[in-house]
UniProtKB/TrEMBL annotation:
Its cofactor is Fe cation. Keywords: Iron, Metal-binding. GO terms for molecular function: metal ion binding. Binds 1 Fe cation per subunit. It holds the Pfam family Pirin. Signal peptide: none annotated. Belongs to the pirin family. Fe cation binds at residues 56, 58, 100, 102. The keyword Iron applies. Residues 22-120 form the Pirin N-terminal domain. The lineage of its organism: Eukaryota, Fungi, Dikarya, Ascomycota, Pezizomycotina. It comes from Sphaerosporella brunnea. Residues 177-281 form the Pirin C-terminal domain. This is RmlC-like cupin domain-containing protein.
Length: 300
């Protein structure tokens, strides 16, 4: 790698309540990092039975849900339903409008369901496309090992060391790599030129990005200039490190967000709220609809 990216900022994600009883560490969509195009939000969530994300709308963005432990059920007003398990992902394009629920499964050991949810902005000309889903099973994800097997890379989306991921998972170009590094491991990862990129540390007490040492729950934001990133886990680290490395093509467009509606003007925000309340222009199927998984939580 000729020029490694430098660190623009790094900060720890603070845990807080979200949804109905869920706990999240949000590191995009906070004052430290807002509208990092094309990224709108990143939540590291932990949710038990009795909590979750009952029926709620979206418009104008894509969501990527990566489950690290447990299971999550999903259901929407178009009749789509299913479950993702540890290592699986769901790519959802909200487009012109969708109402859905995401609720945790029950783990035998009582442990919470843990994962990441990333919100990605849709290009302006796709804001009002038809909604769609794409589930990606963990068994479909190419995995490679480098540096004498001290580094393992799950290539969820993108390319690492010449190995390509499955294509056409989302409309907005995004790379998503899940990296586990043993003490003494080193990684040089190329990234597309000009794309915005960050890393979120899921595990580890010592992870060195460039010349900056960070630990668990930190978001590391890279400068846009450079060919890729350099990562080292020192020999004396007490544990392995695990992080996701994510890059996306920035979009030259205005972002106007009101909760789950991500559009291009203030007028479109008002229209989205009106459409949702009046069950029109993409939200017709929301009229009198309730998810079965949401009812179960509410005791209906």
């Amino acid at each position: 790698m000729s020029v490694a990216r430098t660190i623009a900022k790094a900060f720890k994600a603070v845990e807080k309540a979200e949804g109905a009883g869920a706990r999240v560490r949000r590191s995009i969509g906070v004052p430290q990092l807002r509208n990092f195009s094309p990224f709108l939000m990143l939540d590291h969530f932990s949710v038990n039975i009795g909590a979750g994300f009952p029926d709620h709308p979206h418009r104008g963005q894509e969501t990527i849900t990566y489950l690290i432990h447990g299971s999550i059920d999903h259901e929407d007003f178009a009749g789509n339903k299913g479950t993702i398990y540890s290592g699986d992902l769901q790519f959802m394009t909200a487009g012109r409008g969708i109402v859905h629920a995401e609720m945790p499964g029950k783990n035998e050991d009582g442990s919470p369901n843990v994962g990441l949810q990333l919100w990605v902005d849709l290009p302006k000309d796709l804001k009002y496309c038809e909604p769609r889903y794409r589930d990606l099973r963990g068994s479909e994800i190419p995995t490679i090992k480098t540096d004498d097997e001290r580094v393992e890379i799950k290539i969820i989306s993108g390319n690492s060391h010449g190995v390509e991921s499955i294509k056409d998972l989302a409309y907005t170009p995004v790379w998503l790599l899940d990296v586990t590094m043993q003490p003494g491991g080193k990684l040089s990862q190329l990234l597309p030129k000009g794309w915005n990129a960050f890393a979120y540390v899921l595990k580890g007490d010592q992870v060195i990005f460039g010349d900056k040492n960070v630990e668990q729950y930190y978001n590391v934001v890279f400068d846009q200039k450079g060919d890729g990133v350099e990562v080292v886990v020192p020999d004396n680290a007490e544990s392995e490190a695990r992080f996701v490395l994510i890059a996306g093509e920035p979009q030259n467009q205005k972002i106007v967000q009101y909760g789950p509606f991500v559009v291009s003007s203030e007028e479109e925000v008002y229209q989205a709220m009106l459409d949702y309340q009046s069950h029109s222009n993409g939200f017709e199927r929301a009229r009198n609809w309730q998810s079965e998984i949401g009812k179960a939580m509410l005791g209906a």
